[in-house]
Fold each of these.
Amino acid sequence: MLTSSYDPRIMEGLEQKREYAKKKVKALKGFYDHVKIFILINGFLYLAKSGLLRPFMPNGVQLESYYFGWVDLHTFIWGGILVIHGIFVFHTKLPFLRKWEARQIRKHMNEDREEVRKYK
């Protein structure tokens, strides 16, 4: 006889929620790491382009600003990629899709609740 506190479907649901949460956290961490790397690398490139790094470089290394004409395009393209990454991570949804999703979740939760009540 199964006790009312143990239902395999509930346990499977908890495992699925845990796996979903782990995936979500991993995606968020990946996005924030991407943002950090974007800021560090592009910050360094803009410092080099502005000439502020010239005193720290060894003799013979030329850091003329015209060598860095590509930095703006590089930052623009990488910024676009970063925006696309953010869209995939944060799932920008239309309001009517969120309402539909909430209705479906309530519907399935009610069905599960009724199914559990049958076995009590």
Amino acid sequence: MPKKVRDPIPEFETLEQIADFWDTHSTADYDDLTHEVHFEIELMSEHERTRRITLLPELSNRLEASARQQGVSVETLVNAWLTEKILERA
């Protein structure tokens, strides 16, 4: 029986590309390229969870610029601003 020729695993640029590839390929065909790994997972508490939100591109650019000017991450800046706004309304 002839050996099955497999597609090479390409370099991926997005999670969507990874998903598309593995939706149409079996990891069993690439078993010789795998190795055992060990890792720990720390689950976040309810208060530490991450939420994704979609921003308008211009808003995102302005947030990034403002965060850079203040020397903080976008996440820190957004959390600070949201905290201030919620406390104002309380």
Amino acid sequence: MAKRNTAIALLASAVVMTAVSAAAIAQSGRDYIYIVGSSTVYPFATVVAERFGRGTDFKTPKVESTGSGGGLKLFCDGIGVDHPDITNSSRAIKQSEVDTCASKGVTDIVEVKIGYDGIVIANAIDATAVNLSRADIFRALAKMVPGESDGDLIENPYKTWADVNPELPNVRIEVLGPPPTSGTRDAFVELAMEGGCKSIPWVKALEDTDKDGYKSICHTIREDGAFVEAGENDNLIVQKLQANPTAFGIFGFSFLDQNSETVKGARVDGVAPTFDAIADGDYPVSRPLYFYVKKAHVDVIPGLRGFLREFTSERAWGDEGYLSDRGLIPMPQEERSEIAANVRDLTPLSMARQ
């Protein structure tokens, strides 16, 4: 009894969360799993949550779409029922975020890689199909672009796609995309923007001599209206593309897959964003997806361990799993087995990455 009382006291102070009863959690105001984070991972987490709620005696987990950065901030705020148990992320957690978590008592974090996704640049189904190079994407969306001579940078002067590349449509550049808190945006600037930026030799050379300058050039998106921050709701971007056939939108492959009757993805460097092209590594703008869980909350929040088992089961994330029907690109069997073992053993992030 003394051990249980000690655990409840620590939970109330939000310093350490150990084994307490489900009844104690319920009295504290939460007897369900609380998940935040990436809008890209949101539909996958929601499907697992709904199946878990229907197939067990536990309540259906609450899943909120806050963006990867926003979710990690909420996740790192502390231990206890006032804070999320899981945060979804369309990028790996940064060391600075790990440090922030640790400073607030969130130390044993379990990283769960769930599969792969492609970032698509899509437009309305009846709009002109395009083949964009990553160099085109950089020149269309970067704040500063190279001028006439090496080392010369100018404010982005391109107004139309034809200004960027004469082979592209002569329509105004208008791209609806995620905000800075989004993991999709982080991945987009790293994979697509930087990928195109490296095609300029003198800029690429800066990576070795001036990393900050290099990153500033390659990662900074223009702010003159050509790129429109459309929030964390990818479904809203899809709807806006239907209303504006000359615009493009940036979001995860799963949203393209689920809305293939209304939008289509541009080819990037000649490769169409398809399930097979992403799985094979041929599509150049693809990335892994994750969620992160607090080890301290497992076996305390009712159903959390069972939810982890469901998400990492073959029926969910396997080659023929129900998440692949929603657009998740499965990892190879060996990788899935290794990650599932880490989840079962609640292997902390620091050990799993060794």
